[in-house]
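The authors assume throughout that readers already know how a fold can be written as discrete tokens. For illustration, here is how one protein appears when written out as sequence plus structure tokens:
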Amino acid sequence: MKSVIISADNVTNLGMRLAGITGFVAKNEAEMRRAFKAATIDDTLGVVIITEEVFNTIKDEVTKHKDKGKKPLVVTIPGRKGLEDKDFLMKYIKGSIGIKVD
């Protein structure tokens, strides 16, 4: 299975390309949604990597895909500026299992 990245900047995309992962650079919400939809219907993909900026922009669509539990697996990584939301992991755990972890 292949992996693909959807990023909002060229630097992250270039870094992942050096690791052998192809991807899309999406500059606006419409491009992000189009790239995400194309990636999720591609049967050859096992992992879709999105940057935090892309996740925050199309959060509703990503969450809907994750809730279905279908392939491909969607993974969110920090962008080139690093992790913007420091409580991202805690919010994700609380939303997934319904408890707050200290």
User: Anything to note?
Assistant: The helical segments are 10-18, 29-40, 52-57, 59-68, 88-97. The chain has a mean pLDDT of 86. The domain at 2-97 is CATH 3.40.50.10580 (Rossmann fold).
